[in-house]
Amino acid sequence: MPQTIDIAVIGAGAIGRTHIDTLARMPGFRLSAIVDPMPSGASLATSLGLPVFPNVATLIDSGVAQAAIVATPNETHLPVSEALLRAKIPVLLEKPVAESLTSALRLIAVAEETGIPLLVGHHRRHNPIIRKAHEAIRAGRIGDLVMATVTCSLAKPASYFEAAWRRAPGAGGPLLINLVHEIDLLRHFFGEISTVQAIASNGRRGFAVEDTAAVCLSFAGGGLATLCISDAATGPWAWDLSAGENMARFPAHPVTAHHYAGSRAGLSLPDLTLWEPEGEPDWTRKLHPTKLAIEAADPYEAQLAHFAALIREGGAPLVSARDATANLIVLDAIGKAAATGRAVSVDLSPLDGISGTVFNNGSGP
Ligand SMILES: NC(=O)c1ccc[n+]([C@@H]2O[C@H](COP(=O)([O-])OP(=O)(O)OC[C@H]3O[C@@H](n4cnc5c(N)ncnc54)[C@H](O)[C@@H]3O)[C@@H](O)[C@H]2O)c1
């Protein structure tokens, strides 16, 4: 593998453009092509002096890509990624891993069969805030999780919904588009989710998909969480609007969006404040805040650096297809709970026999 990896971006929409901007700052990569069937993709490629291809097959035939970022609508994730992996092209695939469990399981099988690196783009896991929080939680600094609350008020403009897939069941809606990130983080911090309950409403926008939902989770290891999400509610209390991880798209407000209360202490994010008692916990005594120190880094850059390491050296992806598929299973259970009004058990048995990470043998091109 040469020093610089020639990489193509498949899908030059909202997040594809974030990757294109990020690649311009990354020394280990050279953006070599864009794939997008729309005229907007072609004009972006022309403005950057890059070749543009209408589909992934013509990109593969051209031989100009040694790696690819797949940032296309969810239902295309499997066919596009499968074609790339079979052509021995490592893939950084945007979340959610696929539009359905069947497609996700098929993708896991293709990744295992080919041994080509497949990293799923739950980019927050590469954020130093998340790494530090994970370290503190796993070191027992909040004790056992008792309860967590997560808020996501994400008032999106009408133009956002011009792309039809964002209004379509199975692809759009804030549960699949946004809550999947929160589910990924909660599982990362506190382990597997055993049961979900949910209420969803499309009352604000009237689309076929929900615009607002309230979700309750219980974790297999103990502890409960509530999550409130809406793409029609105004307020800064959301990770996207407070963590400052994509300042080109979103302002960062000085508020918190995640609160974890444990048997020993509390932790809020993204401000990384640990709230500890002096001595035994007692609600009548003052808690002392400590801000956990980190060196800030752009998670999209960190994600690409990890992708480069996977391509060059092999090893396990930080977010494997298995991990991302477990998120999808939880989301599916939330959808069923909202539709039936009943508690739904999370059944991860389709992942039995699939190792914690989808391996790769470092045999990229
Ligand atoms: N990591 C994140 O935080 C994050 C943020 C936004 C979106 N996403 C994910 O990224 C994906 C894209 O979302 P978006 O908001 O950028 O969508 P978008 O609609 O803005 O862009 C999708 C682009 O893909 C192109 N496209 C469609 N089919 C294609 C194909 N077969 N081959 C090549 N190009 C194709 C479209 O023309 C469009 O330009 C979705 O899976 C979404 O869930 C992730």
Automatic annotation (TrEMBL):
Domain Gfo/Idh/MocA-like oxidoreductase N-terminal: 6-122
Domain of life: Bacteria
Name of one Pfam family that matches: GFO_IDH_MocA_C3
Residue span(s) of domain GFO/IDH/MocA-like oxidoreductase: 130-236
Database matches in InterPro entries: Gfo/Idh/MocA-like_OxRdtase_N, Gfo/Idh/MocA_Oxidoreductases, GFO_IDH_MocA-like_dom, NAD(P)-bd_dom_sf
Coiled-coil regions listed in the entry: none
PANTHER family, A to Z: BILIVERDIN REDUCTASE A, BLR3664 PROTEIN
Protein name: Gfo/Idh/MocA family oxidoreductase
Native organism: Ciceribacter sichuanensis
